[in-house]
Amino acid sequence: MKSAITELFGMKVYTEDAVYVGDVDDVIINVDTKKMESLALGNVNQEVLDITNFRGVKIPYRIIRAVNDIVIIRHLAGMSRPEIIED
């Protein structure tokens, strides 16, 4: 599947376990190999990733599972679904 890199900007990123991670802010490309290296995410879900003192996070290309209307990445250890507290 080929698509324009600009189509990725603003896409929502979720894990395979349906946990929201963040939004695609940028795409990092290795100019020597002409391949995508990672996605830079902003608006990161603070309940999933602790990024205190950082503005975002980079998601390596190797953990991206699918791209369509959203981006789905492999679920990583340490990422957990926020607990739902019922009254």
Automatic annotation (TrEMBL):
Gene3D superfamilies, per the entry: PRC-barrel domain
Originating species: Methanogenium organophilum
Domain of life: Archaea
Domain called PRC-barrel: residue spans: 4-75
PANTHER family linked to this entry: PRC-BARREL DOMAIN PROTEIN, PRC-BARREL DOMAIN-CONTAINING PROTEIN
Pfam families on file: PRC
Protein name per UniProt: PRC-barrel domain-containing protein
InterPro entries: PRC-brl_dom, PRC_barrel-like_sf
